[in-house]
Write a structure and sequence with these properties.
It is built from no helices and ten strands. It is mainly β and 143 residues long.
């Protein structure tokens, strides 16, 4: 299937572990606005947790391959939650890319899957150690 050009808005939520207890997953609403050309898309995303902290939305770039969907999200700069749960920005540093992998529903109206972000890489005497954050997501196409 070849799509010449199409714009779409998708809304849903992502989850992440907010603390050390496996039952402390937090759900955050987010919106994705994309422009599709053939099977490749680019666009923007914003979420309800960090939206008021940035002057511009996160950028996304991805592709559709059958029912497989993959995209990378890049926030304008590094952001994190401090010990009081407040969002702080470090405009001198780049935020790690967030990789989303999902499946398109049979009716083409829902994408659900997992996301992953490498938080940091440490070098030790035994080699490299990577720390990851992961979670799930689900978005639905808006009419």
């Amino acid at each position: 299937m070849k799509i010449i050009h199409k714009s779409e808005i998708w809304k849903g939520h992502f989850t992440y572990l907010d603390g050390y207890d496996e039952d402390m997953y937090r759900s955050v609403e987010f919106t994705v606005e994309i422009n599709i050309e053939d099977s490749v898309f680019t666009g923007y995303s914003w979420d309800e947790e960090s939206r008021s902290s940035f002057n511009s939305p996160a950028k996304i770039k991805g592709f559709f391959d059958g029912d497989t969907v993959s995209f990378v999200m890049s926030y304008p700069c590094l952001y994190y939650k401090n010990e009081n749960g407040q969002i702080e920005l470090d405009k001198s540093k780049k935020h790690p890319e967030i990789h989303y992998y999902g499946r398109l529903s049979q009716d083409g109206k829902k994408i659900s899957g997992e996301w992953e972000m490498t938080e940091y890489i440490s070098e030790t005497i035994d080699g490299l150690i990577e720390s990851f954050s992961t979670g799930s997501f689900m978005i639905e196409k808006q009419s």
